[in-house]
Amino acid sequence: MSDVTTSVDVRVPVRTAYNQWTQFASFPEFMTGVVAVQQLDDRRTHWVTEVAGARREFDAEIVEQLPDQRIAWRSTDGDVRHSGTVTFEALAEERTRVTVDLGWQPQGLMEKAGGLIGADRLQIKADLERFRRFIEARGSETGQWRGEIPETAGSAPARAAVPTEPAMPAEPAMPRESAESAASTASAGSAPDVVDILTSQHQQVKDLLDRTSAAEGPEKQLLFAELVDLLKTHEKGEQRVVHPVTRNSVEGGSQMANARLGEEQRADQLIAEVEDLSMNGYEFDAWFEELRSAVLAHAEHEEREEFPRLRRDLDPARLRTMAEELVAVQTAKN
Ligand SMILES: [Fe+2]
Ligand SMILES: [Fe+2]
């Protein structure tokens, strides 16, 4: 089970932040992994999510809802196990801390690969940041439901309380694909191969380079530490599983593998430099741009030369086996 907890402080009263979270249908506005949420009744919701290219549908029930304090839900059926809690803490009259705790069972290699490099954690952090911008830009919620659902161990169907205030007019229905079409998307396509996983990790690296570059202060340090972890995990997998195959099984592979290893060592040296030095902001930014250029050029070489050559020269079944080996190596402690 993957579990991620992350917080954001928003400049709105606790009531506004809470009310917005009672509007499940608005989640796709700020949660990138959520395609649609349909509120079936006060307690039940139907979710369509898409994480690392995998589309899922499931029903969830609200297991606890306390106005201005917390909302907890968990999946009841469908093809994914998912649970979430969001809590609200009033820091000041116009300032609220929103903490989201999500747990789910990753399905398939792409989701496992995303989880192990922290892509899921980064996505949820980014989503909360989007929530902050969404609610602060509006200044008010799109709707509210002030009913209460006391914590329950079972799945009691009866509603626990009548709303203390009339609900706002229903939001317009969110566009939602039919269950049939989404289900066929989820089951379509074969298992990912090693190039699918590496390319998706490259995209995570690129996103994190951009976000680190744009951030400031402690947030920049945090993102930078995540970037270093991600790069190390990614390159470990390539060096143990991918480059050796390139060297031995691909036309012109020896030269190609040497060139890629040289680029990876250069990135390692750059990272070691910053870990040794206490740089001021200006020096860090100049150094970071050098690392960013080196990493982007390296990823482009892999995507334009090495990956297409692997796809051309290797059997698809071998590439899928390598995907499993890659995830096993990246998940291992050493
Ligand atoms: Fe690489
Ligand atoms: Fe790579």
TrEMBL record:
Residues 194-310 form the Hemerythrin-like domain. Residues 10-118 form the Coenzyme Q-binding protein COQ10 START domain. Residues 160-190 have a biased composition (Low complexity). Residues 142-190 are annotated as: Disordered. It comes from the Bacteria. Transmembrane segments: none annotated. PANTHER family: POLYKETIDE CYCLASE/DEHYDRASE AND LIPID TRANSPORT SUPERFAMILY PROTEIN (PTHR33824), POLYKETIDE CYCLASE_DEHYDRASE AND LIPID TRANSPORT SUPERFAMILY PROTEIN (PTHR33824:SF7). This is Cyclase/dehydrase.
